[in-house]
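Lecture notes, part 5. Sequence design as translation. It can be helpful to think of inverse folding as translation between two languages: the language of shapes and the language of residues. The source text, in structure tokens, appears below.
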């Protein structure tokens, strides 16, 4: 290495730091000709603009690359010309240097040199320009031509192709990091800080939610600015949700097999930049402007009382396995960042995506926690949903709830205070961990999803499972001080059928994905109500709409934290595609015209009414599990279960085949106190769920449970904008329509 900057520019072009003008925050306007690069500092990692010695502005570059032999930071001008500057300082495995004159907006990358020995996991290749793992903005998109692979992708002997180093320069084909100046203190922002028990989550895709919205200006559709637009925010507020859970917004790349088929990764579960907002979702620009635009979106949502939760993918990266591209971590320190097998050529794959980040390694753990803290403290977000969280909880091989990752989160003064949601599984051995994550964590509860789907298609052998899921899943979460809100209840998610498709298709229809319908799960637990796909049969259509009302009503009356998927309240369809990860088109986008259809508008009205009902009644969002015991001499309990005969269920009733279940929720026995220390008292309710295909009689329980009941919700009715207001005396035998939910308030 030499101390002078290596150039790829025409003769006579100045090297970085050799007199370029600089003026920021009163800094001098001229940089002295020497030195080209100063020692700088090893912290913080990444490219951080600051004012250096003698008031001279520049950027400090710091990169952890433990086994590397040389590191060069590469600067690119607007014409794509490259200036290479060696980083000669090495402190605790971090290469660093301060380059005077490098200003915000500068595009850059790294070249890292070292051994090429794939048999031991060493895959350094200085011909490949690498994205800074700490880059706060990324300009450009990843294409995947052969030049971006560290090995010769098209080597004739594919079984050894990954061992042959490719010497072609990748710089023209990869995006660059961007130096960003961030001086935002968030003093004008007010976080909603909604308690978990009061939360209603709404999973949405930034692009898909806004792309077709008629109230958003066309130039803002599909962007962070579009989601911040009043028309988008108004829908969220009127619906009543308290938090948006955004599908991945970290910078991500498209997979080679999709690009070859003319498709793109739409969902974004293929991260490559853990600090950078995905540039394609920015309306304002991609040379740092995306950072400010994202922050303005967060502020707008906060101002409306809505929290922002990010779906984050720290379990794997877009570099895939040994035959994948070399984009960042693989070329910086492959052995340090990724879990490798005993044969170090191969990657341990607990994710199904080719690689798994080695979270036990301190530097990998630092990367993840630095990223999480950045998004909280500097980007304003309120929490995270961790994709395949079990992969992060693995120690050396097995899932370990005392793993370094979970231990660090538990003690971190920033992260332990935000919302933490685990997708509690991965595809490795022992990876299914529903109910096992420690306190502080909530979990996606797929057992809730499965039970509710099965109940409404009348496929449960008895009602035991349904009883647990409706009442907060105490069998899974009543340990270690966990609460009912540890369960994130959902019937649908981005992965799988939409709610409308769940009642319209029994088999997946993923032909548009180009994989001959092999992709996506076959375990849908769906029922098409008598016809596959769209149909003109009004009887089938009416039944489907009733089933949608049943599913939404069940979700929003259940104890725990409900999660809706954007568009389910409108009857959105993906035409039977249950794996629309590559459908960046009308299949994946929200169709807002559905709101103009009276049938689907009625579904939206019911959803808003149910969410409002949940917000008004603390008995529907309890902070503690039910005891099931009588608290007073009259024998009234906080939770009771009834058969259609009006009698409390016995042990035998739980094991008997049944299509009907009555659940009584007492508003008199809610544990805890309000903010002023007063007891929490609410109305009491009786919910009757009937999945049978014929009407059934149900005897309303008499005293001490109630003297009379008022019908609040009846899903057999198409229109639910107003309460039915029918009153029944206790002890009366009422008729529950086929496949319906009745919610009755104790009068």
């Amino acid at each position: 290495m030499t101390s002078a900057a290596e150039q790829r520019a025409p003769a006579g072009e100045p090297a970085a730091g050799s007199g370029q003008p600089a003026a920021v925050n009163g800094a001098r306007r001229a940089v002295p000709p020497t030195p080209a690069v100063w020692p700088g500092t090893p912290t913080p990692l990444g490219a951080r603009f600051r004012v250096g010695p003698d008031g001279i502005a520049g950027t400090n570059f710091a990169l952890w690359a433990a086994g590397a032999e040389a590191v060069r930071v590469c600067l690119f001008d607007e014409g794509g010309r490259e200036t290479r500057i060696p980083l000669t300082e090495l402190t605790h495995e971090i290469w660093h240097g301060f380059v005077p004159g490098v200003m915000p907006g500068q595009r850059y990358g790294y070249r890292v040199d070292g051994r090429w020995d794939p048999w031991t996991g060493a895959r350094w290749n200085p011909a490949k320009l690498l994205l800074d793992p700490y880059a706060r903005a990324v300009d450009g998109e990843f294409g995947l031509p052969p030049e971006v692979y560290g090995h010769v992708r098209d080597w004739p002997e594919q079984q050894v192709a990954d061992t042959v180093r490719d010497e072609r320069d990748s710089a023209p084909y990869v995006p660059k990091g961007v130096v960003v100046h961030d001086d935002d203190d968030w003093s004008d922002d007010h976080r909603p800080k909604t308690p978990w028990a009061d939360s209603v989550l709404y999973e949405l895709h930034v692009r898909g939610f806004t792309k077709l919205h008629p109230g958003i200006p066309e130039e803002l559709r599909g962007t962070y600015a579009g989601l911040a637009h009043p028309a988008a925010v108004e829908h969220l507020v009127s619906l009543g949700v308290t938090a948006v859970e955004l599908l991945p917004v970290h910078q991500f790349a498209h997979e080679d097999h999709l690009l070859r088929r003319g498709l793109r990764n739409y969902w974004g579960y293929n991260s490559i930049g853990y600090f950078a907002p995905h540039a394609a979702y920015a309306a304002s620009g991609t040379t740092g402007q995306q950072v400010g635009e994202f922050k303005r979106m967060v502020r707008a949502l906060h101002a409306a009382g809505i929290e922002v939760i990010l779906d984050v993918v720290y379990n794997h990266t877009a570099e895939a396995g040994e035959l994948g591209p070399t984009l960042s971590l693989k070329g910086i320190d492959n052995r340090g960042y990724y879990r490798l097998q005993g044969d170090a050529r191969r990657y341990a794959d607990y994710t199904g995506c080719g690689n798994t980040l080695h979270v036990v390694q301190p530097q990998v753990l630092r990367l993840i926690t630095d990223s999480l803290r950045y998004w909280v403290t500097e980007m304003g977000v309120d929490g995270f949903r961790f994709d395949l969280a079990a992969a992060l909880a693995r120690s050396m091989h097995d899932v370990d709830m005392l793993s370094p990752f979970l231990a660090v989160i538990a003690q971190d003064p920033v992260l332990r205070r935000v919302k933490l949601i685990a997708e509690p599984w991965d595809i490795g051995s022992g990876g299914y961990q529903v109910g096992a994550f420690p306190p502080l964590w909530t979990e996606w509860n797929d057992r809730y999803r499965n039970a509710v789907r099965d109940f409404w298609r009348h496929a449960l052998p008895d009602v035991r499972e349904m009883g647990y899921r409706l009442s907060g899943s105490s069998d899974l979460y009543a340990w270690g001080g966990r609460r009912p809100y540890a369960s994130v209840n959902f019937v649908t998610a981005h992965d799988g059928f939409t709610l409308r498709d769940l009642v319209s298709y029994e088999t997946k229809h993923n032909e548009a994905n180009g994989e001959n319908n092999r992709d996506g799960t076959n375990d849908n637990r769906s029922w098409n109500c008598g016809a596959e796909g769209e149909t003109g049969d009004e009887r089938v259509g009416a039944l489907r709409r009733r089933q949608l009302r049943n599913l939404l009503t069940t979700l929003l009356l259940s104890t725990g934290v409900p999660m809706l998927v954007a568009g389910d309240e409108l009857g959105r369809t993906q035409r039977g595609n249950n794996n629309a990860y590559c459908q960046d088109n009308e299949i994946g986008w929200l169709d807002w015209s559905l709101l103009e259809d009276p049938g689907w508008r009625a579904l939206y009205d019911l959803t808003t009414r149910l969410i409002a009902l949940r917000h008004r009644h603390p008995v529907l969002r309890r902070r503690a599990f039910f005891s099931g015991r009588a608290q007073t001499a009259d024998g009234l309990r906080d939770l009771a279960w009834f058969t259609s005969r009006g009698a409390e269920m016995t042990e035998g009733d739980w094991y008997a085949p049944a299509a009907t279940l009555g659940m009584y929720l007492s508003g008199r026995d809610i544990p805890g106190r309000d903010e002023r220390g007063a007891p929490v008292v609410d109305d009491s309710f009786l919910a009757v769920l009937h999945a049978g295909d014929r009407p059934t009689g149900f005897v309303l329980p008499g005293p001490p449970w109630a003297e009379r009941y008022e019908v609040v919700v009846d899903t057999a009715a198409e229109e639910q904008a107003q309460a039915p207001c029918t009153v029944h005396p206790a002890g009366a035998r009422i008729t529950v329509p086929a496949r319906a939910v009745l919610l009755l308030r104790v009068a």
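The translated text above is only one of many valid answers, since several sequences can fold into similar shapes. The first strand starts at residue 6 and ends at 7.
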